[in-house]
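User: Just a sanity check before I run the rest of the batch. Below are the structure tokens for the first item. I only need the designed sequence back.
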């Protein structure tokens, strides 16, 4: 018995060790397979920690896989956008599917602290559309098979930002549990969702703001037909409870749905709970009266070109609400709102706010709105009338401790007509009149400690909203603004562009107040005062022209004074036109554009004209100078410059330095470079202490920035009287340097180098050469290494070349003298040879003449003899031919006579 117990114990121990070892046997295979296959199939960068958790013990007989620090970052337009970031993800996988290596069957999923940011650009491009198209001839089966039974999401943050539709949703501290058996064709899916805060807005207008949300949904899942039915469902928004039912059918080419929803509670109090600021501590003890009803539907097909029909009705009768211990109330509330949209014909959408009325702290306010044909030619009619004593708000709703609010809001506006004629300037076809005013507004809170005080007066007409007055201050910033808004109704009801022109005056503007939660102080900022910034996104459908005149502006750690010029916001861009300002001890003129069409990676192209800027102050303040021109730290004086520069920005609004491209024309006047590490190193190498300081007077040079380098193009420098230098090279972002300096220095100014030259001269004299060196010596200096730790190499190549040239010249002179003497001796010998040659030639010539005379006589005699022979032969031949002719004629005559005789006989 003990033997069997021992054997069984050993067997269990071996089995346990196998269970521990199996995950590690397959760990590398799974990690490599996941990373490779995922990144190969998506247009994004997917990464996660190599510290993968694998276990069979806690999930036996399945394998539990834990992935940590998961991130999915987009590419191209979304290269700086993180789609998903997650602390950890646990997946339970069927172990046999891993061993077989064919498909991985997923049973459970647990997601911890996922942050999901879904973004749709104005063009309609979505950041989650990252799947690459399948270019293979035959589509392979997926390597993952869903047999999910449970999904848990804990402490999530979800953002859906649709810039094309202007729709925004955010869920904070979001938790979700899902359970169901996906291995079945038909089953019930039970879900529970809760979120600490739900925010929803459309076209910049809040619909829900930080609403505590809970959703319980029971769905019938038909996996074969891909049809999902909503059974028992409850949505709780703060104290507002909504129920719904219906189905969603996912077809091949569209989504068919039939959903209805309605409130399960009819008390007015539940509606008040979703109004921003009303749902606070003590809400349960508040008194409420009146009836409330909310219901709606969504029915039809959703395709790429159409939305389903949609309807909503909201009704409130005799609403009354009062917090305990608050002296004032909201009463006589009446609302009659209906919205009806035809998905296939959106131009038939109807919006009817037939009635809105309320008495808030004894102040009545009323509104009406009707909208027809919102797509083709909106017809709008409505009014807003009433006033609110802002100070009385704290008498009917408890405000957060530290909140101060006072002032009056007055509105009396009416409008009636079609929007389309406004776009062509037919203002007489649209009726609009009234005034909107904010008087004596004062507001401050714990989240807005700097506070504001403002008076605003605006007059409404069909053509524009005339901003007659906007005077006050926000924190330390004072404002005085006038101007107008154009195309307001077309913007509000037909999504047309909104334009305007404004004159902005300010004695002191502290932009940091709007970028930080901390109150600012009216003291000159320093570099240490830098605050965290974010790249600013200019709205797409506005065209605002600000004519600014600001006496002093503080932005980050910059102080800008006497700012004047135009700032134009248009088409997601900011144009800076003829902007003049004083900063860094000098004057700056600025023109250019800031482009935020890629909000996570904006771009700017700017032209600067700088006059009299303090160089050291510029270095201490401007990060780009520190990166590309660290020499400015050691340069005292003023600079003038013309700069053409373009670059991208990171999401925190710091320059993306590798993207910088620039051309610079720089002028320095009475500047001095002191204690520069490179100058120290050169001065030491050449034993020239005068090089420790470089004085620059009326120095002009050009530079360029590209590929992360500041390149200096042939700078000519007067070192001191009689000495000069030509410098070229670059400084890189990593502070590595590469410069060549060609120095031309009087020989008398040298130290150790002069001794070297003397040694060369001595060696030449020992060889019998008498050298005279030039008064100027050329020296090459090569700088490399890092800016603060330069490596110096000195070359006397040019000086040695001068010596060699002198030696060559001396040898040439001696050679020329020897050559002249040789040529003189040769000339004498040549003359004597010529005379001897002439005498000899005359003798030869006479002999030749005598011989020629003898030869001539012999030739003439021979010719006469030959002539005589030829004449005799010719005469003899002529006689022979003559006799032959006579003989032939005699024969012919005989024949003719015989013929004649024959003829006579015949007659």
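Assistant: Here's the designed sequence for the first item:
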């Amino acid at each position: 018995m003990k033997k069997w117990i021992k054997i069984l114990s050993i067997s269990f121990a071996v089995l346990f060790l196998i269970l521990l070892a199996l995950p590690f046997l397959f760990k590398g295979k799974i990690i490599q397979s996941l990373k490779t296959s995922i990144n190969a199939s998506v247009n994004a960068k997917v990464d996660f920690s190599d510290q993968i958790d694998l276990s069979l013990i806690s999930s036996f007989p399945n394998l539990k896989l834990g992935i940590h620090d998961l991130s999915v970052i987009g590419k191209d337009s979304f290269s700086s956008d993180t789609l998903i970031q997650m602390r950890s993800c646990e997946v339970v996988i069927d172990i046999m599917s891993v061993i077989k290596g064919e498909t991985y069957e997923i049973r459970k999923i647990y997601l911890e602290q996922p942050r999901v940011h879904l973004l749709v650009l104005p063009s309609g491009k979505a950041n989650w559309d990252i799947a690459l198209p399948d270019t293979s001839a035959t589509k392979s089966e997926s390597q993952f098979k869903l047999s999910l039974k449970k999904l848990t999401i804990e402490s999530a943050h979800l953002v859906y930002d649709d810039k094309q539709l202007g729709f925004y949703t955010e869920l904070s501290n979001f938790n979700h549990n899902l359970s169901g058996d996906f291995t079945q064709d038909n089953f019930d899916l039970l879900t529970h969702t809760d979120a600490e805060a739900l925010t929803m807005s459309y076209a910049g207008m809040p619909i829900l703001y930080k609403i505590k949300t809970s959703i319980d949904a029971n769905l019938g899942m038909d996996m074969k037909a891909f049809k999902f039915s909503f059974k028992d469902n409850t949505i709780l928004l703060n104290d507002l409870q909504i129920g719904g039912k219906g189905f969603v059918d996912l077809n091949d080419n569209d989504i068919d749905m039939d959903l209805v929803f309605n409130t399960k509670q009819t008390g007015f109090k539940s509606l008040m709970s979703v109004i921003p600021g009303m749902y606070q501590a003590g809400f349960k003890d508040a008194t409420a009266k009146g009836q409330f009803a909310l219901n709606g539907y969504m029915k039809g097909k959703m395709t790429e070109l159409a939305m389903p029909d949609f309807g909503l009705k909201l009704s409130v009768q005799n609403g009354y609400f009062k917090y305990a211990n608050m002296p004032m109330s909201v009463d006589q509330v009446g609302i009659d709102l209906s919205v009806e949209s035809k998905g296939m014909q959106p131009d038939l959408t109807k919006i009817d706010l037939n009635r809105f009325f309320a008495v808030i702290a004894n102040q009545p306010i009323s509104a009406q709105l009707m909208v027809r044909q919102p797509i083709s030619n909106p017809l709008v009619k409505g009014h807003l009338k009433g006033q609110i004593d802002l100070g009385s708000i704290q008498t009917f709703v408890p405000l957060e401790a530290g909140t101060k609010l006072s002032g009056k809001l007055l509105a009396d506006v009416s409008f009636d007509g079609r929007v389309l004629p406004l776009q062509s300037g037919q203002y007489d076809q649209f009726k609009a009149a009234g005034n909107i005013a904010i008087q004596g507004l004062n507001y401050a809170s714990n989240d807005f400690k700097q506070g504001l005080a403002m008076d605003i007066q605006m007059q409404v007409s069909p053509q524009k909203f005339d901003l007659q007055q906007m005077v006050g201050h926000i924190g330390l910033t004072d404002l005085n603004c006038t101007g107008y808004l154009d195309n307001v109704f077309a913007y509000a009801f037909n999504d047309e562009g909104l334009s305007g022109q404004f004159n902005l005056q300010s004695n002191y503007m502290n932009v940091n107040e709007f970028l930080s939660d901390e109150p600012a102080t009216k003291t000159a900022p320093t570099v240490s005062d830098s605050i965290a910034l974010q790249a600013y996104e200019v709205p797409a459908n506005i065209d605002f022209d600000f004519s600014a005149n600001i006496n002093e502006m503080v932005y980050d750690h910059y102080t800008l004074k006497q700012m004047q010029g135009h700032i134009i916001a248009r088409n997601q861009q900011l144009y800076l036109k003829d902007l003049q300002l004083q900063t860094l001890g000098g004057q700056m003129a600025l023109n250019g554009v800031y482009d935020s069409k890629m909000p996570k990676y904006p771009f700017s192209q700017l032209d600067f004209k700088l006059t009299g800027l303090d160089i050291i102050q510029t270095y201490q303040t401007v990060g780009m100078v520190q990166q590309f021109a660290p020499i400015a730290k050691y340069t005292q004086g003023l600079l003038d410059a013309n700069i053409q520069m373009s670059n991208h920005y990171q999401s925190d609004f710091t320059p993306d330095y590798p993207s910088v491209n620039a051309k610079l024309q720089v002028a320095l006047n009475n500047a001095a470079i002191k204690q520069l590490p490179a100058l120290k190193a050169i001065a030491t190498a050449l034993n020239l202490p005068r090089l420790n300081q470089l004085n620059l007077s009326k120095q002009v040079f050009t530079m360029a920035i590209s590929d992360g380098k500041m390149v200096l193009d042939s700078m000519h420098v007067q070192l001191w009287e009689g000495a000069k230098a030509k410098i070229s090279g670059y400084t890189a972002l990593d502070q590595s340097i590469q410069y060549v300096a060609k120095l031309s220095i009087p020989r008398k100014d040298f130290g150790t180098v002069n001794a070297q030259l003397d040694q060369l001269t001595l060696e030449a004299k020992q060889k019998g050469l008498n050298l005279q060196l030039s008064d100027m010596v050329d020296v090459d200096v090569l700088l490399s290494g890092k800016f603060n730790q330069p490596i110096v190499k000195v070359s006397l190549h040019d000086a040695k070349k001068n010596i060699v040239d002198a030696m060559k010249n001396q040898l040439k002179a001696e050679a020329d003298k020897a050559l002249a003497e040789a040529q003189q001796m040769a000339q004498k010998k040549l003359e004597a040879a010529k005379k001897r040659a002439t005498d000899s030639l005359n003798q030869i010539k006479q002999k030749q003449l005598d011989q020629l005379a003898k030869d001539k006589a012999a030739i003439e005699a021979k010719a006469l003899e030959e002539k005589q022979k030829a004449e005799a032969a010719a005469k003899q031949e002529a006689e022979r031919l003559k006799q032959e002719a006579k003989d032939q004629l005699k024969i012919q005559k005989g024949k003719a006579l015989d013929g004649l005789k024959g003829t006579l006989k015949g007659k």
